[in-house]
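Fold it.
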Amino acid sequence: MTNPRRATGSDGDDGPRWALAPGARKPVPDLIGDHLLEMVRSEELKPGDRLPSEPELARMMGVARSSVRTALQRLEARGVVEVNRGRGWVVSTSADRSAADLMLDRLAGQQFDLADVMEVRIALESLAVALAATRAPSGTLEGIAKLARDDRETDADDRATLLRQDEEFHGEIVAAAGNDYLRALYEMLTPLVAEWRERSFTSTEVHDRSAADHNQIATLLRRRDEVAARLAMSAHLLGQYRGIARDRSAERGDDLPPATSTTYVDLDDVPMFHPHAKDGDGRA
């Protein structure tokens, strides 16, 4: 980065406004971080801009220098600002990228245990399918049901098609949840299980079991039974997870308890079409 633009400390038209909003009930470093982040988002501060020094920022904001440093360090961890030797704090050139892209960069350099990733995946997809059951348009749920039918009718030897259909089925359910943050988290997770997914389609039995699970989930979605759909999704993914957890335990030689159905589902929850569901639910 050469000759970064200097963000001036003036409150005039030639520079951004640094004064903190009065009266906000937050720790001072949080206030500073929120203010700087908003300046980046509003493009008062642009990628490559050099910030005033820590003492100057503290003076202009009327806060302690230690609070400024804490705020800047937190923003650095989020990829918003960075330190350039000889120039001080500057707005990162990646500051205008999405949070998902930044997180993917951070994840790429780390090795995560597959069982750990699967535990998070089960939590995300169990929530996603419950949300989809309650809020997705009927047309969307019909589309998910069609994906399940296509999966069931695909030849078990056509691994490439099966893998694509599996990704589409799960991805469409997450999208149908109508929660952008959940979807971003899921999209950060899927590359971490991609290799394992490719290895998992190994037999006709695996295909038939997966297709049956998908069909059940799609049916429960169309019934808008959020509890039963969540039960079915968690059971579907737990079936895949158990083998991974056993392998982890054998490799590590530890006795870390694996996740179970009660990790993700409250056993007091009653599916819509459960034979003992109460009339008061209006759904038995």
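Confidence is low (pLDDT under 50) at residues 9-15, 275-284.
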